[in-house]
Design a protein that fits this description.
Layout lengths: L1 E5 L11 E2 L25 E3 L4 H4 L4 E2 L7 E3 H10 L4 E5 L1 E4 L2 E3 L2 E6 L2 E2 L8 E3 L6 E4 L12 E4 L2 E8 H10 L5 E3 L1 H9 L9 H9 L1 H6 L3 H6 L2 H10 L37
Parallel strand pairs: 3-7, 10-13
Antiparallel strand pairs: 1-14, 1-15, 2-3, 4-5, 5-9, 6-9, 7-8, 11-12, 13-14
Helix pairs in contact: 5-8
């Protein structure tokens, strides 16, 4: 069984670290699924608005780069059981009361092709970015315990063996979830009834608004065209939080990080 590595649902958004792009290496270097030279990713800097004591409760610090920023506990486990799948780059972590030591960015150094295209549901635009249901082929990871999805590099795949170790260690700041569950829970859509991006976004974030304004019955029985019409006619109540870099709809109206391109921007309600 395969799992995806995500931020926890209950991770406070205000504790999301800021990846300082102006003084840090290109974050996408660690999304390629390949090993880097030591000097290719030097001095990445992340800042937090909270004190060190608050952030130390997390083994993995969620941040705007979309990359795992892990402590020495997780590093030790990965070095011991998956040494050929990982690489680490020391990070400069700055909290409100000073520097926080013992954290590094995780580079997953391998990638695999394993998406089950027949069973998965996605928008086929050459990048497989708009999933409504996702599943992988059994044993597609081969000998790897952790790898990136070669067809969608934003996904970090974790094996059943590694997940059991993580569960035993009770690491915090990480959520490992089956892709079948993640996208079904996220979009509320069964693979037999796929919906478009706007429909899924509104269903996920504005169901109460639809009910309060007598729109839910029409919305729930129709598809993407009606969802787009409702969004256009109710701009005062429905905000489509699109990434200014790639145009992808983010997960929530308040989300900063885009799951498609990894860029982080403040939501623009204007």
């Amino acid at each position: 069984m395969i799992y995806l590595w995500f931020d926890p649902l209950d991770y406070p958004e205000e504790r999301l670290g800021r990846y300082e792009r102006e003084i840090s290496p290109d974050q996408f270097l660690l999304r390629r699924g390949k090993k880097l030279e030591v000097n290719e990713f030097s001095e990445p800097t992340v800042t937090f608005r909270f004190p060190r004591k608050t952030m130390l409760q997390y083994d993995c610090l969620c941040n705007g780069s979309g990359l795992p920023l892990i402590n020495d506990r997780i590093k030790t486990v990965l070095e011991n059981i998956a040494p050929n799948d990982v690489q680490f780059f020391k990070a400069k972590v700055i909290c409100s009361d000073g520097a926080l030591e013992g954290y590094q960015f995780l580079n997953v150094t391998n990638k695999v092709v394993g998406m089950d295209r027949e069973k998965s549901r996605y928008e086929d635009n050459g990048m497989y970015t708009s999933f409504t249901y996702l599943t992988y082929k059994p044993n597609c990871m081969g000998e790897h315990l952790i790898a990136r999805d070669a067809e969608y590099l934003g996904h970090i795949l974790v094996s059943e063996e590694l997940k059991k170790v993580f569960d035993t260690e009770r690491f915090t700041g990480i959520r490992l979830v089956r892709p079948e569950d993640y996208y079904t829970d996220l979009y509320g859509a069964h693979p037999s009834t796929p919906r478009g991006d706007v429909w899924n976004y509104i269903n996920r974030n504005y169901k109460r608004y639809l009910l309060e304004n007598d729109l839910f019955e029409e919305f729930s029985q129709e598809g993407e065209d009606v969802a787009e019409k409702i969004a256009e006619q109710h701009k005062d109540g429905i905000f489509l939080n699109r990434c200014p870099n790639c145009g992808n709809l983010k997960i929530t109206p308040k989300a900063k990080v885009c799951l498609k391109c990894g860029e982080s921007h403040e939501p623009n309600h204007t």
